[in-house]
Design a protein that fits this description.
Layout lengths: L4 H8 L5 H15 L9 H20 L1 H6 L5 E4 L2 E4 L11 H7 L28
Antiparallel strand pairs: 1-2
Amino acid sequence: MFTTVENVKTLTGYDVTTEQLYMAQNIIETFCGRVEAEVSVPNDRALLAKAVAFQAAYMSVNYETVFEQVAVTSIAQTDGGTVLDVGMASPYLAPLAVFSMRNLSWRKSRSIKIGPMYGTPKFRTWETA
């Protein structure tokens, strides 16, 4: 487990059960694409521990929302409506859990900077033309 019931209480102030913690960890592992055994970087483990704690606390209050919410992007009625932020995996994931997972090492940019192919590029200006 990335975190414990006691750590969830300390971090969030919510009381959760071990079963809720297991459910929260499975949801976080599914969202981030890695299981606990594949995460070896200490910073990633700390961020995932926070994400699991936030998710467990969120689920303790919003259990039906997480497991019974219909997959829609907006709900409208005659006197009002709701638009869900599906980019943040709302309403299934706790917003703080999503924020925690933004800085995981494998989610960062994979682009590589390279220099010019043939040394320093020579540009012509109006002075040298």
